[in-house]
Every structure is written in C-alpha cells, then in structure tokens.
Design brief:
mainly alpha; 189 residues; Heme oxygenase; Heme Oxygenase, Chain A; binds protoporphyrin IX containing FE
C-alpha cells in the first residue's frame, strides 16, 4: 500500500524536520519567537499551496478547502501581531506539475497536523497562549484530526494504484520535505 511505503521512505526527512522544529520550540522564550515559527510555516506552506491549487480542487478532493492552511496561519499571525512574510517560490519549492506530485506535497502538509497536536501542547505550556489566540494552525482539525488523516490516506491509496504512480507521489513527498528542511535552515540564519 502506498501509505505504508510513503511513511517508510520519508521517515528520515520526518525525523530531521521534527528535530529542527523541536529545537526551535525548546528555545522559544516569547510570543514573538512563536510568531517567528508560524512565519516560517506561512512562507513555505503558503507558497506550496499555490502550486497544489493548480491540480487539487473540490472536484478531485471534496474537503480540499478545509485542508488549506494558509488562511489559518495568516489569522494566527494577525492575532499575535506577527508579519506575513513573502511566500516561498521557484527553486525554494518542490516541482509540482501534476495531480500525483500535488498529492505527494499535500501528504507532507496533512501529516503535519499529526505532530501539530503535540506542538500545540508545547506552545500552551511554554507561553500560556490559549485557544483562539494563535493556535488554530497547530490545532489543525482538533478532535477530528485522526478521522481526517484516515480519509486522506484512503484517497492517497486510491489515486495512485500503480507502482509508477506511487513512485511519483513518494518522490514529490520527499522533495517537499527536503525543500522544507532547507527553508527552515535558511530562515534560521
Ligand atoms: C515537533 C515536530 C513534530 C512532531 C513531534 C511530529 C510528530 C508526529 C507524530 C507523532 C506523527 C504520527 C506518527 C504515527 O501515528 O504513526 C507524525 C506523522 C507525520 N508527520 Fe510529524 N511531527 C512533527 C513535525 C512535522 C512537520 C513539520 C511535518 C511536515 C512538514 C510533519 C509531517 C508528518 C507526516 C507526513 C506524518 C505522517 C506519517 C505517516 O505516513 O503516517 N511532521 N508526526
């Protein structure tokens, strides 16, 4: 099944990404530091969603509108008086030229909702920020996060039944993680 293969083949990048982000969370001392982390996500996911929008829509993924993250990130940043930085573009982003590549990129974005629940708890503990004050992105789908993930996995398996299609989705997911890692490192300079 694609969902098992993609999890195994992106594991290395997931671990790297998680490590960088946990480091940032641990050194977070103020709301401004947290807003800086949100800016990083806004810039990358914001640019990535513009590419995904060219291939995925409510016709081929009925709840796609709920799954977009740019508006939630912008709202959180506005609540916390952060900036809306420029979005990633060109070589800062992976190649997304068709539906399969778009689903590979969306896999990375959707998967981030699973870690988001943990991050949300860390932010609440460290900074005392409560719901409604800038946690909507990391809270994701709240209680519905597990269901939304299972539904997404089913869709992923359905759109890429052949080996060649699966290889294309997996390559795009790895490329999306890799560029995000580079983006986070660049943002930290
Ligand atoms: C502090 C940071 C993070 C933590 C603690 C974390 C933690 C987790 C956890 C607990 C899971 C569920 C694993 C399972 O149930 O099998 C998960 C899955 C996942 N996470 Fe993260 N995560 C973090 C950051 C991220 C970020 C920033 C991204 C994307 C940019 C991401 C992408 C994914 C993906 C794609 C999956 C799904 C793996 C699968 O196919 O089952 N994670 N993460």
């Amino acid at each position: 099944m694609l969902t098992e293969k993609i999890k195994a083949t992106t594991l290395q990048y997931h671990q790297e990404t998680e490590k960088i982000l946990v480091g940032k969370m641990k050194s977070m001392r103020s709301v401004a530091d947290y807003a800086h982390i949100l800016e990083l996500f806004y810039g990358y996911f914001g640019g990535l969603e513009l590419l995904i929008d060219k291939h995925i829509n409510t016709q081929n993924l009925p709840d796609y509108t709920d799954r977009r993250k740019t508006a939630a990130l912008a709202n959180d940043l506005t609540n916390l008086k952060g900036n809306l930085p420029p979005k990633a573009e060109d070589t800062e982003l992976p190649q997304i030229n068709n539906l399969l590549q778009a689903f590979g990129a969306l896999y990375v974005i959707e998967g981030s909702t699973l870690g988001g629940k943990i991050i949300s708890k860390m932010v609440q503990q460290h900074l005392g920020i409560t719901d409604g004050q800038g946690l909507s992105f990391f809270n994701g789908y709240g209680e519905d996060t597990g269901n939304k993930w299972v539904q997404f996995q089913q869709k992923l398996n359905a759109i890429a039944p052949t080996e060649a299609q699966q290889t294309e989705v997996i390559a795009a997911a790895n490329n999306t993680f890799e560029k995000f890692r580079d983006w986070m490192v660049k943002f930290s300079d």
